[in-house]
Write a sequence for this structure.
């Protein structure tokens, strides 16, 4: 799956704040994501993140 910096990931499960949209701050073996609902930043392994992604929204599309 091709996920790049500044993409917005729509996840299958919601963050505890209720939002399911995450902004990609860094990509590599793991991702640094920022929740668009509450602004919390966290790291997640690439394999776990790719399994939970429902849709990818590119910056150029929006």
């Amino acid at each position: 799956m091709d996920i790049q910096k500044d993409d917005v990931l729509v996840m299958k499960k919601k963050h505890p704040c209720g939002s399911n949209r995450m902004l990609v701050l860094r990509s590599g073996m793991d991702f640094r994501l920022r929740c668009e609902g509450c602004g919390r930043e966290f790291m997640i392994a690439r394999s776990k993140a790719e399994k939970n992604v429902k849709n990818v929204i590119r910056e150029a599309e929006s």
Notes: The chain has a mean pLDDT of 93.
